[in-house]
Amino acid sequence: MTLPPLAFLGAGSMGGAILHGVVASGLSVGIAVTNRTPAKAAALAELPGVTSYALEADPTVNQDAAASADIVVVGVKPAMVPDLLREIAPSLRPGTIVVSIAAGVTIATFEEILGAGIPVLRSMPNTPALVGRAVTGLAAGTSATAADIAVVREMFETVGTVIEVPESQIDALSTISGSGPAYVFLLMEELTKAAVGKGFAEPEARAMVEQTFIGAAYLLESTGEDPAELRRRVTSPKGTTERAIAVLQDAHLDDVFVEATDAALARARELAAGA
C-alpha cells in the first residue's frame, strides 16, 4: 500500500516520531508538515518528500497543508484542537480523513466541528514510536469506512503495532500502553537503586538492569512464549528467584497495578471532562 498525501499539523515528539516513521517506510507520496517556528520547520525540511511550513512565517499554512492532503494528522496540544479544527474545516475536501493524536479530545468534538463528510479516527500512540516500536490504539468515528481505517492503520504500522478498539476503550488503553513505558522505567529505576545498595557502581548497576530488561523483552518477543511461562523457567524450586518472587507477590503487586491503572483511568476521564 502507498499512503496518500499526508499533512501533519503540529509535529512535536509524538507527531514527529510518526512523521519520521512514515518517511523511513518509503510509503508516502508527499507530506506537508506545519510547526509554529521557522526553527522547527527547518529541522524537518530536509526529510525526503516533506514540505515543512512555519506558522510564524505564514499564518495560513495549516489551511494550505490541510487542503493538500487526503489524511490530516492533528498533533497540536489538546487545548488548541477546537480552534485548529475550526480553522481548517473550510479547507478540507469531502472524504479527507482526519486523525487525532491529541489525548483527551473525543471523536464527537472532531465530528461536531468538522461536519459531515469528514471521516475521523482517534489514536493513542506511545513514546516507543520514537524508535519504531510503538503500540497505537486506534478508534474509528461514525463515518470512517473500512478503507479509511486500513490506510490509517498502515500509517501507524510504520512505527509499530496497532490495536483497533472502540473509542470507549481508548482511555483504558492509555493506562496500559500509553503510560506503560513510565511503569517500566520506574521499575528499572528502583531495581538500579537496589543494585547500587548492594555495592555496585552506578554504571554497573544501570548496565545490569537496563540490559536485563532489554534482553528479557527480546526473549519474550523471539520465543512468543507466555510471560508467566518464561518466569517459571527462571524460577527454580526453592531457589533464590523463587524467594524474591514470593516477596513481590506478598506485596500484592497485582493489586498495585490494578490500583495504579485505575488511578490513571480516573485522571484520563477528568481530563476528557475538562477538569
Automatic annotation (TrEMBL):
Q: What is its EC number?
A: 1.5.1.2
Name the reaction it catalyses.
L-proline + NADP(+) = (S)-1-pyrroline-5-carboxylate + NADPH + 2 H(+); L-proline + NAD(+) = (S)-1-pyrroline-5-carboxylate + NADH + 2 H(+)
Q: Which residues form the Pyrroline-5-carboxylate reductase catalytic N-terminal domain?
A: 6-104
Superkingdom classification of source: Bacteria
Instruction: Reply yes or no: does the keyword Kinase apply.
Output: no
Per its record, what are the GO molecular function terms? pyrroline-5-carboxylate reductase activity
Q: Name one Pfam family in it.
A: P5CR_dimer
Main localization category: cytoplasm
Pathway field of the UniProt record reads: Amino-acid biosynthesis; L-proline biosynthesis; L-proline from L-glutamate 5-semialdehyde: step 1/1
Keyword field contains Amino-acid biosynthesis: yes
Q: What keywords does the record list, in alphabetical order?
A: Amino-acid biosynthesis, Cytoplasm, NADP, Oxidoreductase, Proline biosynthesis
Stretches assigned to the Pyrroline-5-carboxylate reductase dimerisation domain = 167-271
Where can this protein be found? Cytoplasm
Q: Which InterPro entries match?
A: 6-PGluconate_DH-like_C_sf, NAD(P)-bd_dom_sf, P5C_Rdtase_cat_N, P5CR-like_CS, P5CR_dimer, Pyrroline-COOH_reductase
Q: Which family does it belong to?
A: Belongs to the pyrroline-5-carboxylate reductase family.
Stated role: Catalyzes the reduction of 1-pyrroline-5-carboxylate (PCA) to L-proline.
Q: Which PANTHER family match?
A: PYRROLINE-5-CARBOXYLATE REDUCTASE (PTHR11645), PYRROLINE-5-CARBOXYLATE REDUCTASE 3 (PTHR11645:SF0)
| NCBIfam families found in the cross-reference section | proC
What this protein is called in its record is Pyrroline-5-carboxylate reductase
Write the gene name.
proC
